[in-house]
């Protein structure tokens, strides 16, 4: 009984970590797109 509860908690924590990692990844990509877009606009403007 104890091991199944422990395994379930481990899976929950692991899935939470995966979800946080995906959010971080998408936020990082969004920031890079904005920064690169800003640089592109700065380069295109005279």
By DSSP, the count of extended strands is: 0
Order of helices and strands: H
Tally of contiguous helical segments:
1
Instruction: Show unreliable segments.
Output: none
Strand content: under 5%
Share of helix among residues? over 70%
Q: Which structural category do the helix and sheet elements fall into?
A: mainly alpha
Characterize the main sheet.
none
How many domains make up the coordinates?
1
Output mean pLDDT. Answer: 77
Distance between the termini: 70 Å
- Outline: rod-shaped
Radius of gyration: 20 Å
Summarize the structure.
The chain has 46 residues and is mostly helical.
Keywords:
mainly alpha; 1 helix; membrane; 0% strand; 46 residues; single chain
Walk me through the structure.
The chain crosses the membrane at residues 24-44. Keywords: Membrane, Transmembrane, Transmembrane helix. It comes from Gallaecimonas xiamenensis 3-C-1. This is DUF3265 domain-containing protein. The structure is a single chain. With 46 residues, the protein is mainly alpha-helical. The chain has one domain. Helix content is 93%, strand content 0%. It is rod-shaped, with a radius of gyration of 20 Å. The termini are far apart.
Write the layout of secondary structure elements.
Elements (H helix, E strand, L loop, with lengths): L1 H43 L2
């Amino acid at each position: 009984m104890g091991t199944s509860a422990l395994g379930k908690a481990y899976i929950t924590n692991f899935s939470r970590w995966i979800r946080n990692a995906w959010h971080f990844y998408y936020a990082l990509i969004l920031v890079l797109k904005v920064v690169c877009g800003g640089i592109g606009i700065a380069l295109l403007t005279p």
